[in-house]
Design goal:
The chain has 437 residues and is an alpha/beta fold. The protein contains 14 helices and 16 strands. Bound molecules: adenosine-5'-diphosphate, aspartic acid and magnesium ion (MG).
Length: 437
Protein backbone atom coordinates (compact mmCIF):
# COMPACT_ATOMS: atom_id res chain seq x y z
CA UNK A 1 0.00 0.00 0.00
CA UNK A 2 1.35 3.45 -0.92
CA UNK A 3 1.49 6.38 1.47
CA UNK A 4 0.61 9.80 0.02
CA UNK A 5 1.22 12.99 1.99
CA UNK A 6 -0.39 16.28 1.02
CA UNK A 7 1.03 19.49 2.48
CA UNK A 8 -0.70 22.65 3.66
CA UNK A 9 -1.06 24.33 0.27
CA UNK A 10 -2.37 21.11 -1.27
CA UNK A 11 -5.31 21.16 1.16
CA UNK A 12 -5.35 24.95 1.57
CA UNK A 13 -8.85 25.61 0.18
CA UNK A 14 -12.05 23.78 -0.75
CA UNK A 15 -10.94 23.76 -4.40
CA UNK A 16 -7.55 22.27 -3.53
CA UNK A 17 -9.15 19.57 -1.36
CA UNK A 18 -11.40 18.64 -4.27
CA UNK A 19 -8.34 18.33 -6.52
CA UNK A 20 -6.66 16.06 -3.98
CA UNK A 21 -9.77 13.90 -3.83
CA UNK A 22 -9.69 13.53 -7.64
CA UNK A 23 -6.02 12.54 -7.45
CA UNK A 24 -6.41 9.87 -4.81
CA UNK A 25 -9.68 8.21 -5.83
CA UNK A 26 -8.23 5.85 -8.44
CA UNK A 27 -9.32 2.47 -7.14
CA UNK A 28 -6.00 1.78 -5.36
CA UNK A 29 -5.91 1.25 -1.61
CA UNK A 30 -3.76 3.89 0.12
CA UNK A 31 -2.94 5.82 3.28
CA UNK A 32 -3.31 9.58 2.87
CA UNK A 33 -1.46 11.81 5.34
CA UNK A 34 -2.66 15.41 5.55
CA UNK A 35 -1.13 18.57 6.94
CA UNK A 36 -3.21 21.37 8.39
CA UNK A 37 -4.64 23.81 5.83
CA UNK A 38 -1.94 26.35 4.95
CA UNK A 39 -1.68 29.18 7.47
CA UNK A 40 -3.48 27.25 10.21
CA UNK A 41 -0.45 26.06 12.20
CA UNK A 42 1.00 29.58 12.07
CA UNK A 43 -2.32 30.93 13.38
CA UNK A 44 -2.31 28.34 16.16
CA UNK A 45 1.23 29.41 17.10
CA UNK A 46 -0.01 33.02 17.29
CA UNK A 47 -3.02 32.03 19.39
CA UNK A 48 -0.73 30.18 21.80
CA UNK A 49 1.46 33.25 21.98
CA UNK A 50 -1.52 35.35 23.10
CA UNK A 51 -2.36 32.77 25.76
CA UNK A 52 1.25 32.71 26.97
CA UNK A 53 1.03 36.48 27.36
CA UNK A 54 -2.26 36.17 29.27
CA UNK A 55 -4.01 38.06 26.49
CA UNK A 56 -7.20 36.02 26.22
CA UNK A 57 -8.99 38.76 24.28
CA UNK A 58 -6.28 38.69 21.60
CA UNK A 59 -6.40 34.90 21.46
CA UNK A 60 -10.20 34.81 21.19
CA UNK A 61 -10.16 37.33 18.37
CA UNK A 62 -7.70 35.18 16.39
CA UNK A 63 -9.69 32.02 17.18
CA UNK A 64 -12.94 33.58 15.92
CA UNK A 65 -11.30 34.77 12.71
CA UNK A 66 -9.80 31.32 12.07
CA UNK A 67 -13.12 29.62 12.78
CA UNK A 68 -14.88 31.87 10.27
CA UNK A 69 -12.33 30.82 7.61
CA UNK A 70 -13.23 27.19 8.22
CA UNK A 71 -16.98 27.93 8.02
CA UNK A 72 -16.33 29.58 4.65
CA UNK A 73 -14.44 26.52 3.40
CA UNK A 74 -17.33 24.28 4.42
CA UNK A 75 -19.74 26.27 2.26
CA UNK A 76 -17.59 25.62 -0.80
CA UNK A 77 -16.52 22.07 0.00
CA UNK A 78 -19.77 20.18 0.50
CA UNK A 79 -22.81 20.21 -1.70
CA UNK A 80 -25.37 18.85 0.79
CA UNK A 81 -26.74 20.44 3.98
CA UNK A 82 -26.26 17.13 5.79
CA UNK A 83 -22.48 17.18 5.34
CA UNK A 84 -22.21 20.94 5.85
CA UNK A 85 -23.94 20.54 9.22
CA UNK A 86 -21.93 17.52 10.23
CA UNK A 87 -18.64 19.22 9.38
CA UNK A 88 -19.72 22.44 11.09
CA UNK A 89 -20.47 20.53 14.29
CA UNK A 90 -16.99 18.95 14.28
CA UNK A 91 -15.30 22.28 13.60
CA UNK A 92 -17.26 23.92 16.41
CA UNK A 93 -16.03 21.35 18.95
CA UNK A 94 -12.40 22.00 17.95
CA UNK A 95 -12.83 25.76 18.25
CA UNK A 96 -14.69 25.47 21.56
CA UNK A 97 -11.71 23.44 22.75
CA UNK A 98 -9.35 26.24 21.64
CA UNK A 99 -11.46 28.81 23.50
CA UNK A 100 -11.37 26.70 26.66
CA UNK A 101 -7.67 27.53 27.14
CA UNK A 102 -8.57 31.08 28.13
CA UNK A 103 -9.56 29.64 31.50
CA UNK A 104 -6.46 27.59 32.28
CA UNK A 105 -2.80 28.11 33.04
CA UNK A 106 -0.84 28.01 29.84
CA UNK A 107 2.28 25.90 29.42
CA UNK A 108 4.10 24.01 26.68
CA UNK A 109 1.66 21.15 27.29
CA UNK A 110 -1.37 23.30 26.41
CA UNK A 111 0.46 24.78 23.44
CA UNK A 112 1.07 21.35 21.93
CA UNK A 113 -2.60 20.46 22.33
CA UNK A 114 -3.48 23.67 20.46
CA UNK A 115 -0.96 23.02 17.67
CA UNK A 116 -2.53 19.59 17.06
CA UNK A 117 -5.91 21.05 16.09
CA UNK A 118 -4.94 21.99 12.53
CA UNK A 119 -4.34 18.45 11.33
CA UNK A 120 -7.40 17.17 13.23
CA UNK A 121 -9.54 19.76 11.43
CA UNK A 122 -8.20 19.13 7.91
CA UNK A 123 -8.45 15.34 8.13
CA UNK A 124 -11.98 15.35 9.54
CA UNK A 125 -13.18 17.76 6.87
CA UNK A 126 -11.51 15.85 4.06
CA UNK A 127 -12.77 12.48 5.28
CA UNK A 128 -16.34 13.83 5.37
CA UNK A 129 -15.91 15.19 1.85
CA UNK A 130 -14.88 11.74 0.60
CA UNK A 131 -17.89 10.19 2.35
CA UNK A 132 -20.18 12.74 0.71
CA UNK A 133 -18.70 11.70 -2.63
CA UNK A 134 -19.51 8.09 -1.77
CA UNK A 135 -15.87 7.03 -1.37
CA UNK A 136 -14.83 4.21 0.96
CA UNK A 137 -12.85 6.36 3.39
CA UNK A 138 -11.76 5.74 6.99
CA UNK A 139 -9.94 7.91 9.55
CA UNK A 140 -6.83 6.61 11.31
CA UNK A 141 -6.28 8.65 14.49
CA UNK A 142 -2.56 9.50 14.59
CA UNK A 143 -2.74 10.11 18.35
CA UNK A 144 -3.52 6.39 18.74
CA UNK A 145 -0.41 5.11 16.93
CA UNK A 146 2.21 7.84 16.36
CA UNK A 147 4.56 8.13 19.34
CA UNK A 148 7.94 9.58 20.26
CA UNK A 149 10.14 8.31 23.08
CA UNK A 150 11.93 10.06 25.96
CA UNK A 151 14.54 11.45 23.53
CA UNK A 152 11.83 12.71 21.16
CA UNK A 153 12.78 9.99 18.69
CA UNK A 154 10.03 8.00 16.98
CA UNK A 155 9.13 4.79 18.80
CA UNK A 156 9.08 2.68 15.64
CA UNK A 157 8.00 -0.59 17.29
CA UNK A 158 5.03 1.12 18.96
CA UNK A 159 4.10 2.89 15.73
CA UNK A 160 4.15 -0.30 13.65
CA UNK A 161 2.17 -2.33 16.18
CA UNK A 162 -0.50 0.28 16.80
CA UNK A 163 -0.88 1.41 13.21
CA UNK A 164 -1.45 -2.22 12.29
CA UNK A 165 -4.10 -2.39 15.02
CA UNK A 166 -5.83 0.73 13.71
CA UNK A 167 -5.80 -0.63 10.17
CA UNK A 168 -7.27 -3.96 11.25
CA UNK A 169 -10.08 -2.19 13.15
CA UNK A 170 -11.25 -0.82 9.80
CA UNK A 171 -9.97 -3.49 7.45
CA UNK A 172 -10.46 -3.37 3.69
CA UNK A 173 -11.21 0.32 3.39
CA UNK A 174 -10.04 1.90 0.17
CA UNK A 175 -8.69 5.20 1.53
CA UNK A 176 -7.28 5.71 5.01
CA UNK A 177 -6.96 9.36 6.03
CA UNK A 178 -4.60 10.28 8.84
CA UNK A 179 -2.99 13.32 10.46
CA UNK A 180 0.58 14.30 9.76
CA UNK A 181 2.74 16.13 12.32
CA UNK A 182 0.89 15.14 15.50
CA UNK A 183 1.81 12.37 17.92
CA UNK A 184 1.96 11.49 21.58
CA UNK A 185 5.13 11.57 23.65
CA UNK A 186 6.54 9.08 26.14
CA UNK A 187 4.15 10.36 28.82
CA UNK A 188 1.10 9.97 26.59
CA UNK A 189 0.73 13.74 26.15
CA UNK A 190 -0.12 15.31 22.80
CA UNK A 191 3.08 16.33 21.04
CA UNK A 192 4.34 16.86 17.50
CA UNK A 193 7.19 16.03 15.12
CA UNK A 194 8.30 19.69 14.81
CA UNK A 195 7.26 22.20 12.18
CA UNK A 196 7.01 20.66 8.72
CA UNK A 197 6.75 17.26 10.41
CA UNK A 198 3.98 15.82 8.25
CA UNK A 199 6.65 14.61 5.82
CA UNK A 200 8.21 12.73 8.72
CA UNK A 201 4.82 11.22 9.64
CA UNK A 202 4.47 9.95 6.07
CA UNK A 203 7.86 8.27 6.04
CA UNK A 204 7.37 6.76 9.50
CA UNK A 205 4.02 5.35 8.36
CA UNK A 206 5.59 4.10 5.12
CA UNK A 207 8.33 2.36 7.10
CA UNK A 208 5.84 0.90 9.60
CA UNK A 209 3.70 -0.76 6.92
CA UNK A 210 6.68 -1.55 4.63
CA UNK A 211 5.03 0.52 1.93
CA UNK A 212 6.09 0.18 -1.70
CA UNK A 213 6.32 3.96 -2.14
CA UNK A 214 5.99 7.18 -0.17
CA UNK A 215 4.71 10.19 -2.10
CA UNK A 216 5.15 13.74 -0.82
CA UNK A 217 2.71 15.94 -2.72
CA UNK A 218 3.41 19.66 -2.45
CA UNK A 219 3.24 22.96 -4.34
CA UNK A 220 6.34 22.48 -6.51
CA UNK A 221 7.42 19.86 -9.04
CA UNK A 222 10.05 18.12 -6.92
CA UNK A 223 13.36 19.00 -5.30
CA UNK A 224 14.87 21.89 -7.27
CA UNK A 225 18.59 22.28 -7.85
CA UNK A 226 18.61 25.45 -5.73
CA UNK A 227 16.25 27.26 -3.35
CA UNK A 228 13.50 28.75 -5.57
CA UNK A 229 12.77 31.36 -2.89
CA UNK A 230 16.19 32.93 -3.49
CA UNK A 231 17.28 31.96 -6.99
CA UNK A 232 15.43 32.37 -10.28
CA UNK A 233 15.32 29.67 -12.93
CA UNK A 234 15.88 26.67 -10.64
CA UNK A 235 15.02 23.26 -12.10
CA UNK A 236 13.65 20.03 -10.64
CA UNK A 237 16.16 17.24 -10.01
CA UNK A 238 14.66 14.02 -11.44
CA UNK A 239 16.59 11.49 -9.32
CA UNK A 240 18.30 11.74 -5.94
CA UNK A 241 20.05 9.15 -3.82
CA UNK A 242 18.66 8.80 -0.27
CA UNK A 243 21.90 10.27 1.09
CA UNK A 244 21.70 13.28 -1.20
CA UNK A 245 18.07 13.97 -0.32
CA UNK A 246 18.86 13.60 3.40
CA UNK A 247 21.73 16.11 3.12
CA UNK A 248 19.56 18.60 1.24
CA UNK A 249 16.66 18.24 3.68
CA UNK A 250 18.91 18.57 6.72
CA UNK A 251 20.73 21.54 5.21
CA UNK A 252 17.68 23.64 4.50
CA UNK A 253 15.70 22.44 1.46
CA UNK A 254 12.32 23.24 2.95
CA UNK A 255 10.45 20.86 0.66
CA UNK A 256 11.41 18.02 3.02
CA UNK A 257 11.44 17.81 6.81
CA UNK A 258 15.10 17.52 7.93
CA UNK A 259 14.92 13.93 9.17
CA UNK A 260 12.17 12.44 7.00
CA UNK A 261 14.43 10.52 4.63
CA UNK A 262 15.93 8.19 7.23
CA UNK A 263 12.94 5.85 7.82
CA UNK A 264 12.49 5.46 4.06
CA UNK A 265 16.19 4.85 3.52
CA UNK A 266 16.44 2.25 6.29
CA UNK A 267 13.60 0.31 4.67
CA UNK A 268 14.65 1.07 1.09
CA UNK A 269 11.28 2.63 0.25
CA UNK A 270 11.41 5.05 -2.70
CA UNK A 271 10.16 8.56 -1.97
CA UNK A 272 8.58 10.56 -4.78
CA UNK A 273 8.17 14.34 -4.54
CA UNK A 274 5.20 15.45 -6.63
CA UNK A 275 3.26 18.61 -7.43
CA UNK A 276 -0.48 18.69 -6.64
CA UNK A 277 -0.91 21.53 -9.12
CA UNK A 278 0.88 19.61 -11.88
CA UNK A 279 0.26 15.94 -11.15
CA UNK A 280 1.68 14.70 -14.45
CA UNK A 281 5.14 16.24 -13.85
CA UNK A 282 7.89 13.69 -13.10
CA UNK A 283 8.95 15.39 -9.85
CA UNK A 284 11.86 13.82 -7.94
CA UNK A 285 12.38 10.14 -7.25
CA UNK A 286 14.53 9.47 -4.19
CA UNK A 287 15.97 5.96 -3.98
CA UNK A 288 19.21 3.95 -3.75
CA UNK A 289 20.03 4.94 -7.30
CA UNK A 290 22.55 7.76 -7.71
CA UNK A 291 23.32 9.86 -10.77
CA UNK A 292 26.99 9.19 -11.37
CA UNK A 293 29.21 12.18 -11.95
CA UNK A 294 26.60 14.86 -11.32
CA UNK A 295 26.36 17.79 -8.96
CA UNK A 296 22.69 17.72 -8.10
CA UNK A 297 21.59 20.62 -5.93
CA UNK A 298 22.42 23.33 -3.43
CA UNK A 299 20.67 24.20 -0.16
CA UNK A 300 21.25 26.62 2.70
CA UNK A 301 20.67 26.26 6.41
CA UNK A 302 20.07 29.47 8.40
CA UNK A 303 20.78 30.56 11.97
CA UNK A 304 24.15 28.91 12.37
CA UNK A 305 26.64 29.84 15.06
CA UNK A 306 30.34 29.03 14.67
CA UNK A 307 32.60 28.38 17.64
CA UNK A 308 36.37 28.26 17.37
CA UNK A 309 38.49 26.75 20.14
CA UNK A 310 42.21 27.48 19.86
CA UNK A 311 44.65 25.54 21.94
CA UNK A 312 48.43 25.69 21.63
CA UNK A 313 48.86 21.95 21.42
CA UNK A 314 45.71 20.47 20.03
CA UNK A 315 47.09 17.68 17.89
CA UNK A 316 49.84 16.83 20.37
CA UNK A 317 47.32 16.54 23.20
CA UNK A 318 45.34 13.39 22.60
CA UNK A 319 41.84 13.50 23.99
CA UNK A 320 41.40 17.16 23.08
CA UNK A 321 38.61 16.56 20.57
CA UNK A 322 36.90 14.16 22.94
CA UNK A 323 36.80 16.84 25.62
CA UNK A 324 35.37 19.34 23.16
CA UNK A 325 32.65 16.94 21.99
CA UNK A 326 31.78 15.94 25.55
CA UNK A 327 30.99 19.54 26.39
CA UNK A 328 28.53 19.79 23.51
CA UNK A 329 27.06 16.43 24.41
CA UNK A 330 26.53 17.35 28.03
CA UNK A 331 24.41 20.32 26.90
CA UNK A 332 22.47 18.21 24.37
CA UNK A 333 23.68 20.39 21.51
CA UNK A 334 24.51 18.72 18.25
CA UNK A 335 27.31 19.83 15.98
CA UNK A 336 26.61 20.33 12.26
CA UNK A 337 30.03 21.03 10.79
CA UNK A 338 33.60 20.64 12.00
CA UNK A 339 37.04 21.65 10.72
CA UNK A 340 40.37 21.15 12.43
CA UNK A 341 43.94 22.43 12.30
CA UNK A 342 47.08 21.91 14.31
CA UNK A 343 46.15 24.72 16.69
CA UNK A 344 42.42 24.51 16.98
CA UNK A 345 39.01 23.33 15.95
CA UNK A 346 35.94 25.11 14.59
CA UNK A 347 32.45 23.69 14.93
CA UNK A 348 28.97 24.97 14.09
CA UNK A 349 25.68 24.55 15.94
CA UNK A 350 22.14 25.69 15.19
CA UNK A 351 20.70 25.34 18.67
CA UNK A 352 22.08 28.16 20.85
CA UNK A 353 19.94 27.56 23.95
CA UNK A 354 22.96 26.44 26.00
CA UNK A 355 25.59 28.53 24.19
CA UNK A 356 26.75 30.47 27.25
CA UNK A 357 27.33 27.34 29.32
CA UNK A 358 29.08 25.62 26.41
CA UNK A 359 31.41 28.58 25.85
CA UNK A 360 32.23 28.84 29.57
CA UNK A 361 33.25 25.21 29.63
CA UNK A 362 35.19 25.37 26.36
CA UNK A 363 37.25 28.23 27.80
CA UNK A 364 38.90 25.67 30.07
CA UNK A 365 40.37 24.07 26.92
CA UNK A 366 41.63 27.14 25.10
CA UNK A 367 40.71 30.50 23.61
CA UNK A 368 37.14 30.58 22.39
CA UNK A 369 35.55 32.85 19.77
CA UNK A 370 31.93 32.84 18.60
CA UNK A 371 30.48 34.05 15.29
CA UNK A 372 26.72 34.38 14.94
CA UNK A 373 24.48 35.08 11.91
CA UNK A 374 26.16 32.50 9.74
CA UNK A 375 24.66 30.01 7.28
CA UNK A 376 25.79 26.67 5.90
CA UNK A 377 25.64 26.24 2.15
CA UNK A 378 25.58 22.62 1.14
CA UNK A 379 26.45 21.42 -2.37
CA UNK A 380 25.13 17.92 -2.97
CA UNK A 381 25.84 15.31 -5.61
CA UNK A 382 28.13 12.48 -6.61
CA UNK A 383 31.26 13.97 -5.04
CA UNK A 384 33.78 11.25 -4.17
CA UNK A 385 37.43 12.28 -4.43
CA UNK A 386 37.89 10.40 -7.72
CA UNK A 387 35.58 12.95 -9.35
CA UNK A 388 38.51 15.33 -9.63
CA UNK A 389 37.63 19.02 -9.69
CA UNK A 390 34.02 18.76 -8.48
CA UNK A 391 34.64 20.51 -5.18
CA UNK A 392 36.84 23.03 -7.01
CA UNK A 393 33.84 24.11 -9.07
CA UNK A 394 31.93 24.95 -5.91
CA UNK A 395 34.93 26.77 -4.45
CA UNK A 396 35.36 28.74 -7.68
CA UNK A 397 31.70 29.77 -7.62
CA UNK A 398 32.24 31.30 -4.18
CA UNK A 399 35.48 33.09 -5.11
CA UNK A 400 34.07 36.55 -4.24
CA UNK A 401 32.41 35.52 -1.00
CA UNK A 402 34.11 35.32 2.41
CA UNK A 403 34.12 31.67 3.51
CA UNK A 404 34.62 30.89 7.20
CA UNK A 405 34.74 27.06 7.05
CA UNK A 406 34.77 24.33 4.39
CA UNK A 407 33.87 20.71 4.99
CA UNK A 408 34.48 17.96 2.43
CA UNK A 409 34.98 14.23 2.69
CA UNK A 410 32.52 13.47 5.50
CA UNK A 411 30.49 11.61 2.89
CA UNK A 412 30.72 11.13 -0.86
CA UNK A 413 27.72 13.34 -1.28
CA UNK A 414 28.43 16.86 -0.11
CA UNK A 415 30.70 19.85 0.28
CA UNK A 416 29.61 22.45 2.83
CA UNK A 417 30.62 26.06 3.29
CA UNK A 418 30.04 28.33 6.23
CA UNK A 419 29.44 31.93 5.16
CA UNK A 420 27.85 35.10 6.55
CA UNK A 421 24.06 35.20 6.38
CA UNK A 422 24.15 38.48 4.46
CA UNK A 423 25.88 36.72 1.54
CA UNK A 424 23.24 33.98 1.20
CA UNK A 425 21.42 35.10 -1.95
CA UNK A 426 24.64 36.10 -3.70
CA UNK A 427 26.26 32.77 -2.89
CA UNK A 428 23.26 30.66 -3.97
CA UNK A 429 23.02 32.57 -7.25
CA UNK A 430 26.75 32.23 -7.91
CA UNK A 431 26.56 28.48 -7.32
CA UNK A 432 23.63 28.09 -9.72
CA UNK A 433 25.54 30.00 -12.41
CA UNK A 434 28.73 27.98 -11.97
CA UNK A 435 27.25 24.52 -11.40
CA UNK A 436 24.02 24.33 -13.37
CA UNK A 437 24.34 26.66 -16.37
P1 LIG B 1 4.16 21.67 2.17
O1 LIG B 1 3.25 22.65 2.82
O2 LIG B 1 3.53 20.95 1.02
O3 LIG B 1 4.83 20.76 3.15
P2 LIG B 1 6.55 23.31 2.08
O4 LIG B 1 6.26 24.76 2.02
O5 LIG B 1 6.94 22.73 3.38
O6 LIG B 1 5.28 22.54 1.46
O7 LIG B 1 7.68 22.92 1.00
C1 LIG B 1 7.55 23.33 -0.34
C2 LIG B 1 8.34 24.61 -0.55
O8 LIG B 1 9.72 24.38 -0.30
C3 LIG B 1 8.32 25.13 -1.96
O9 LIG B 1 7.19 25.91 -2.21
C4 LIG B 1 9.63 25.92 -2.05
O10 LIG B 1 9.42 27.29 -1.88
C5 LIG B 1 10.45 25.45 -0.84
N1 LIG B 1 11.78 24.98 -1.23
C6 LIG B 1 12.94 25.33 -0.64
N2 LIG B 1 13.99 24.74 -1.21
C7 LIG B 1 13.49 23.96 -2.21
C8 LIG B 1 14.08 23.12 -3.18
N3 LIG B 1 15.40 22.91 -3.23
N4 LIG B 1 13.27 22.50 -4.06
C9 LIG B 1 11.94 22.67 -4.01
N5 LIG B 1 11.32 23.47 -3.12
C10 LIG B 1 12.08 24.11 -2.22
N1 LIG C 1 1.14 21.76 9.93
C1 LIG C 1 2.49 21.58 10.37
C2 LIG C 1 3.32 22.83 10.05
O1 LIG C 1 2.79 23.76 9.47
C3 LIG C 1 3.14 20.35 9.82
C4 LIG C 1 3.32 20.32 8.31
O2 LIG C 1 2.70 21.07 7.57
O3 LIG C 1 4.11 19.50 7.87
O4 LIG C 1 4.44 22.88 10.42
MG1 LIG D 1 6.45 21.01 4.47
Amino acid sequence: MKVLKFGGTSVGSAARMKDVAKLICDGEQKIVVLSAMSGTTNSLVEISDYFYKNNSAGALERINALEQKYFDVIEDLYSTEKYKNESKAIIKTHFEYLRSFSKSVFTLFEEKAILAQGELLSTNMFHLYLLEKGEDSALLPALDYMRIDKNSEPDTAFIAENLEKQLSLQADKMIYITQGYICRNFYGEIDNLQRGGSDYSASLIGAAIKSEEIQIWTDIDGMHNNDPRFVEGTKPVPYLHFEEAAELAYFGAKILHPTCILPAKLNNIPVRLLNTMEPKAHGTLISMRSQKGTIQAVAAKDNITAIKIKSGRMLLAHGFLRKVFEIFESYQTSIDMITTSEVGVSVTIDNTKRLDEIVNNLKKLGTVSVDTDMIIICVVGDLPNENVGFQAKAVTALKDIPVRMISYGGSNYNVSFLINAEDKKRALEALSRELFN
